[in-house]
Amino acid sequence: MEYSKECPFCKDTRFNNNKLVNLPTEDSLLFENDNIYVQVDISPLCLGHILIITNNHYLNFFETSSEIKKDVIKLKENLKKIYKEVYNADILFFEHGSSKSGYAGASIDHAHLHCIPYKFDINESLNKLLGNPIECDILSSSYQFKNEFSYIYVEPPQERKIIYKVEKLPSQFLRKLVSEKLNNTNYLWQEKCITTDSILNLKQTILDLQNKIAI
Predict the structure, then answer these.
(1) What CA–CA distance (Å, rounded) separates 104 from 142?
(2) N or C terminus: which one in the chain shows less Cβ crowding within 10 Å?
(3) Average pLDDT rounded to a whole number, residues 68-85
(4) Closest to 172 (Cα-Cα) out of 73, 77, 41, 68
């Protein structure tokens, strides 16, 4: 399957891939303001898998403006309440934070934060694979980040916000790890998005969360 070579998260081209595989386009957009938008992942790893994405093109959330960071913080608090109500679950937030194209396991070089219902442990596996993390909030305005390094960001509920400094990682590194925790074998979004279970999860997530998200 051939997918769009244009950035699938930039405003003018964000539905290109959905159109190519005949998946919902505007309906998958759950929230938008001047800085960010929320869209159901084109290939959800599970029910409730959504993305927080910047309208403008940034490589990662660390390098975004303080205004964008404030919006994401407000949005995350809202999502935590919604996921408790809708899925009876906490949320895991994670990001492949590339400092340059193709690093940190990112397959799309545009800032996007994954949000999924959290019903498993991921930290122990990451520690074994990547070593000890650093406590760090990528949305803190106190840290001036100039893309000195790539990172993996993980924010489990009621735990520390942490990053792992990394260099090259396999594409979709965190998607693969989360998929394994969910006992799924297919994690590559390019392949999974046209499978029956993925399509059903995408459409049901739209129904579950439509008109509920705000800041």
Answers:
(1) 23
(2) N
(3) 96
(4) 41
